Amino acid sequence: IHKVDSADYNFSFLTKQFMSDDAPKDSAGWKIFPSSIVFVRGKGNVGLQTAHQIDYHVQEFNLALKDMRYFPDSLAFEMSQFSFEETSGMMVRETHAKVGISSRGVMMNDFSMEGKHSGFLIDSLMVHFKNPNDSLADIKPTDFYADVTLLKLASQDIRLMSNNRWNLSQDFTFSGILRGSPDNIKGREILLGFGDNSSLLASFDLKGLPDLKNSFLFFDIKSLSTNAPDIAMLVSAGLAKPVDIPQVIDEMGEITYTGNITGFLNDLVAYGRLSSNFGSVSTDLGIKLKEDDKF
User: Fold this and answer.
1) Beta bridge partners of 47
2) pTM for the complete prediction?
């Protein structure tokens, strides 16, 4: 089907015909199986409801699916292209994935995406659905598994995606295995980098999402390295307001830590070994964020 004038597309005549109850009951039914689907230079609006409503205005939307294969209860295909530009500047240049979809969930292998500043490579991703009989709008995932080879999230894209609520000037990098459910996430062999000065190698359990402030967390930290400016930037971004870091933390210089961190975001207990400009010490330390957003 080709568009031959400036009018909007209207495929309702097709869907009405295929879904009509007026067809004779003894007539042979249609089965249409496309082997590929291509969208070129589309545009539209997408609203994302999180803590705040964020609206994206998408243009230059391109999508190509090929090698589509149909089974009694599932569909498999290769996504050979997915790209778009958003009016605020966010961009996805290229996407590839091998995809399987059924009423029970979605599976992706060799899933890669490249943007103007950010990108990722995921070896495998699986998401299971709560109720296979739900409509597309009501589908809710029950559990998931993701083996992330590398994810780079640039500060420019963080600001765009958060509508400038996360005002960071450093990039994030991430790798490791994530699994669990939307309210109970487990991370194993997680390697997280922030800018040039902060890194974390750890496993964790995080329960109580999406309410991050009241979620319980447990971190088994193999190595952590950071400094006061990075701590201040991350905490301030998370709380969406400036936070004063005690002078003594600034004087510690590079801070390294090995051990466990347990508790809530505003009330943590750290048990392990801490090293800084002041030397090394075995810790059993409580860290609280007071109501005035001071430690």
Assistant:
1) 55
2) 0.73
